[in-house]
């Protein structure tokens, strides 16, 4: 059966997910992972303020704030915001609870940010092309002239899919089993996470709409943004045909 956006409930970031989020992605807090992202974002923000779409529990936003950048956030999940508030200095980041495709910050007027950014595949949490285009337009509306919009996301691994296959494993360990279920007709996938630790057994599923870098470039063009750079990761490594992810930056005309 084909997947559809109507069948995939995005309201998965509940109290349990928020509470366990840091443990589930502990590797993303490691300095070798987090520091290059914060370095790059701080450079893009310069002396101006930054707005993180889907700020979550503040993994990147709090670290960026510690670099002296004024950080604001938009977040769909109230439980994730509650968890952010429990973190040291989490109450210093103004956050609007709402959809990143349409919500407007209230602590700062739209059109006043030097940087808007999304990290770790978050653009794919919007499950239709229309929503993703709206997200680009919302980012552009919040940017000051000359401001940057940065996205970190994965490159669909469709080359690994055999004819008639739907599932690709992305993690197999003693603690976790991870499989992506692709529907190439609807351009949707579901990431299945199976916790196999004794006493912690459980399943978590997250829906995504994948998009190629070229499709994201077109979305940026529709929002009035111009392409500036694309890297394989936050270190600035060259993006190639073999890259599994990309960091892309678009700029609002000055």
From TrEMBL:
Domain Methyltransferase residue range list: 51-147
Pfam families according to UniProt: Methyltransf_25
SUPFAM superfamilies: S-adenosyl-L-methionine-dependent methyltransferases
Superkingdom assignment: Bacteria
Organism: Schumannella luteola
Name of this protein: Methyltransferase domain-containing protein
